[in-house]
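Dear colleagues,

I hope this message finds you well. In preparation for our joint manuscript, I am sending the Adenosine deaminase (Romboutsia maritimum) sequence together with its predicted structure, so that both groups work from identical material. I would be grateful if you could confirm receipt.
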Amino acid sequence: MIKKLPKIELHCHLDGSVRLDTIIDIAKKENIKLPSEDINELSSLVKVPSNCTSLVEYLKRFDLPNKIMQTKESLRRISFELLEDAQRENVKYLEIRFAPMLHLQRELTISEVIESVICGMKEAQEKYDIKSNLILGCMRTMSEEDAILVINEGKKFLNKGVVAVDLCGPELEGFSSNFKNAMDLARSYGYKVTIHAGEAASENNVLDAINLLGAKRIGHGVRIKDKKEVYKLVKEKNIVLEMCPTSNVQTKAIDAYENHPFYPFYKDDIKVTISTDNRTVSDIDLSSEIDTMFNKFDLKRDDYKKIYLNSVDATFADDKTKNWLRSLI
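The corresponding structure tokens are as follows:
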């Protein structure tokens, strides 16, 4: 039943969602040495292990895919294939996020990197009944100057494929203050802002992401359950949480599905959405993620419709796209 329903995904990383056979194929074509060309061995290197202990360990699984995402053609192909995979499970709208600074190892410019991903997205949208937009990630391990560089280079693509900016990577306490100027600049240009926060560090990062950086959406945000002040702020400001339960369990942000705050948040009218985070690394798709949460918490069709419509409102899409998405449910 769930596979047939129209779906929206707001939090999906491009480099965490690369097909394994594509990694092997691109490596052969571009003469890139892999630890193994056996798809089963490769799977164990790219997919997160069951005994993963933290977000930092989880993020190591991106090293290998990023090796083969350094040319225009590989970036175009991988973004096309992500949308192709998503439309097979009736995802109608997908916001893809990635960090352009991670794709400069073979002398592409930031602009060329962004353009290549948009090219693949457009190609998929022409072929399939799916729409998408791009969120530019700025790595928290890099400098604010690097973030400003990405924001400036991405400006010419605003509303031509690019809609928003994000901060991603390992989460340290109090990171927001290091990127205030960059996010102020992004908002002045017209970027929407979504920030990874309250995942591997405290709920105070969510507070800062909203108050210092102007975030309208939060990636994960599970820690807001730990502090009334932050929880109240998220609820009162209608901040949308891009929740990725399987990823949270894998990174040990949450110890078990049953203890995930998704359901209590939903019942208390916090705006929650469901996403995969990383399709390949977490070894899931959106249908399986929704199915897991609905089975764990005995949710019904009316619940699905409410979450779907919350997701429509939360997209960074234009009004025409939002109206189309509403018409599908």
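For the figure legend, we might mention the following. Strands lie at 7-13, 91-98, 131-139, 162-168, 192-197, 217-220, 240-243, 271-274. The two ends are 14 Å apart (CA to CA).

With kind regards,
E.M.
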